[in-house]
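Notes continue from the previous slide.

Worked example: a multi-chain complex. Inputs as given:
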Amino acid sequence: MPIKHKDLLGIKELEKDEIILILDTAESFIEVSERPIKKVPTLRGKTIINYFHEPSTRTRISFEIAAKRLSADAINFSQSGSSASKGETLLDTVRNLQAMRADILVMRHSVPGAAHFIASHLEASVINAGDGAHEHPTQALLDLLTIRQRVNQLEGLRVVIVGDIAYSRVARSNIFALKKMGADVTICGPTTLLPHKSESLDVRVSHNFDEVIPKADVLMMLRIQRERQAKMLLPSLREYSQLFCLTPKRLAKARENLLVMHPGPINRGVEIDPSVADGPFSIILNQVTNGVAVRMALLFLLAGRSGIEKNPIAA
Amino acid sequence: MPIKHKDLLGIKELEKDEIILILDTAESFIEVSERPIKKVPTLRGKTIINYFHEPSTRTRISFEIAAKRLSADAINFSQSGSSASKGETLLDTVRNLQAMRADILVMRHSVPGAAHFIASHLEASVINAGDGAHEHPTQALLDLLTIRQRVNQLEGLRVVIVGDIAYSRVARSNIFALKKMGADVTICGPTTLLPHKSESLDVRVSHNFDEVIPKADVLMMLRIQRERQAKMLLPSLREYSQLFCLTPKRLAKARENLLVMHPGPINRGVEIDPSVADGPFSIILNQVTNGVAVRMALLFLLAGRSGIEKNPIAA
Amino acid sequence: MPIKHKDLLGIKELEKDEIILILDTAESFIEVSERPIKKVPTLRGKTIINYFHEPSTRTRISFEIAAKRLSADAINFSQSGSSASKGETLLDTVRNLQAMRADILVMRHSVPGAAHFIASHLEASVINAGDGAHEHPTQALLDLLTIRQRVNQLEGLRVVIVGDIAYSRVARSNIFALKKMGADVTICGPTTLLPHKSESLDVRVSHNFDEVIPKADVLMMLRIQRERQAKMLLPSLREYSQLFCLTPKRLAKARENLLVMHPGPINRGVEIDPSVADGPFSIILNQVTNGVAVRMALLFLLAGRSGIEKNPIAA
């Protein structure tokens, strides 16, 4: 089954069977990165452009590694040192990239909807690598894949997403993804960091972390963005941590096969205690590992719409 | 016929038959970028360094894509984060790159003549990717190629270059190139943006855009650099646009097979109306597409002086 | 013989036979960069990350070229535009890179010991590309290789290292390397730029450059870091140059087969006269050329611990 969309813009646009297709494809790519020679010729001669308007380490490098392990030509460019400082519109910039016969544009941008806007004007495929506080679909897909490796079914799985929900593209994409897969999602955090209209998200809401921990199968801890404090949304990091930091003491009340996740970068001691981040329940680094496989799968599925090799993982 | 020069420094140094050689070679490379697998092994094991002192999106990426589609190893470096901040001379920097056995150095620099100076001290080939207000030869070559795809002959072709001529390396390189190919060139703009000694350029001069439009076969609209206004060379962008912006109204007076070009990045609404930039006369994105082919041709011709494959576009 | 260490952190940790192994391996790689097709498939499918916290031209590019000539996938990232600005610890950043199955992390960092710290927490190999004023082992190895190409034996060779010794990782690594190989090392400079406890380094100390020149087989001129002047460690660059700049006049007193070295970037006219830097005694650019070979050797030896091709230089 080929993927239906030209682009990967958000989880909201995906149907459940498309999500499963992506996860299944990603699963087959995991093994490529465990080989002594981590490289397949699948996307040889394809041009993939990583266009990052916002700073990023893990996402940009994860996409670049994914592209290179598929033998694609990967081109990086970040906003600094580019034509935007010369007054060029975003659309003109990406049309130029398409005119150079880029196959896939991976784009991170601070404006919500930027990737959607661009995709609607291009024939080239666009992958949204994060657009403002809107969506970060590859993060949600790698999170799903990491959970799916460890539980029998996502249906009914009790997932609690903790922290800065209102302003988090990771939270939004994960809520969409988890709900589509039938999980039972609770968002948990101080009132100022939860969305005003959470009903439309079809999730449970809690302000009491200690209360929800015992029943959770998965805890997704979100990064506290320190700039929230300046905006008066957080009284103090210390107070936040007292109520919402995942500590060993809190973990003691959890189910014994709890999964602890974090999209990174981690503020150790703020939203998660270092001993928990590095402890036995943590699958944080598995998320990172799976990120490469999910991105390889997406590059393959989108570039593959024009017909490429039968066996994408043949060396 | 091999190319006579070690370097591509400016159009001024090229003879007509060399220009034709480059365009013919570029034409054969266009098709490579239209294949499903956009890659040939022609420059495998060659090292190409993109050394950009000034910000650039399209030129740097175009060269990087060109190098990668030829299977060369492409290395980027920009001034920020480099040794110049440690007081190293430009010549020492590039001698270091040559000592690492770089084959071709693609260089953009703010100082006119920088590429010529460097080339005279290196055995490695140098491609000038823009040196101050002096030359931007690959832009002129891709412009020629784009025109040549659409007209029967360049001899006698009436080309009007509009805007900031005095400070434009694009204008200078295009004037040299078009004159060598026998075109009839007019430069058009406000007095403050035209060169003082335009006689030596052997071009017609006009300050009246509306007057020259009806007879033009090609209009090359140049980017207005907003910083000119600060230097009092432009009274206001608005006034400039009233006189020199290519609008649909002005276009109505043009020949029906007019070609509209722009080297980018575009200031939409300043030197060109959005509907014209995106309209049927515009070949702006073809210029960008051909840029990759021209750069592939140059990398091949210069690296090929040491003898490489017979068929450069064999997959 | 395989290399014993997982990492290359400093010369201090290496035994003499390991240094010889690295130099011998590097010698076999020199020829690869002299071929028309400068590329071998030795590290195909390996992922090498160049993580540079401090500005660098030659070292980063040298590592990138080395990786690409071995067909490895090379990923660059510098501190700016990364997660450190988001409060992530260095250890979390590199654990992420390891989770993406990076094989080798090449790291430059301003903090002495940073590479050692990281290496002790990773299974991936770490190469120290300079850590504060501590060590720069690949520079010392390429210096040794460059000397070894020109002299019969390092044992007893009289090497004078001149300039800013106290704050130079290049000086430290070279002192360790030269002493292990049996050379007779003198450090020479103004008191403020020599280490307080030079006894522990087992080197001769001189404040009189003119006195030591006649007996030297090798002069290693170090870069004067201009910021020292601001810290009052240098009275003035002019005074420094009068006493320690290697001028033609000083060179006249030297042995006729003297070797003049400099790690770059050069401050021409400060620590070395331009005519000497470019003169017949200078092997400065040979150092740069050998840098690529030494780095290819190290990438091969460290990545090769997991077993790769028999003949690393087969095309």
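Summary box: The first helix of chain C runs from residue 16 to 30. The first strand of chain C starts at residue 47 and ends at 52.
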